[in-house]
Specification:
Elements (H helix, E strand, L loop, with lengths): L2 H9 L4 H8 L3 H10 L13 H16 L4 H8 L3 H11 L1
């Protein structure tokens, strides 16, 4: 795997899951590699402060009300489509 390509894709807003599909590996592999390369990774749900979590979920709900797909929302907020679905599920 090309470390520079991984960093480039991540900085373009791709999620670890999307990059993993590109390289045919696991998202955990990509996440660990990014950390080893010194790239600060975006928040995941378990690491948001309560205020950050509230803001992310509000943004996701707002985008969903505009009939955007989970994938489109994920690209905007920097999360996988599965994470977007999870946030929406917990917002209800």
């Amino acid at each position: 795997m090309d470390n520079q390509k991984i960093i480039q894709l991540y900085e373009e807003g791709k999620s670890c899951e999307e990059i993993a599909r590109y390289f045919d590996c696991t998202s955990q592999n990509i996440s660990k590699r990014l950390r080893r390369l010194g790239v600060q990774t975006r928040h995941i749900a378990g690491y948001y402060t309560p205020e950050e979590l509230k803001q992310v979920r509000e943004k996701i709900s707002q985008l969903r009300s505009q009939n955007l797909t989970y994938q489109e929302i994920g690209e905007i907020v920097g999360l996988s489509d599965t994470s977007v679905w999870q946030h929406l599920k917990h917002s209800e």
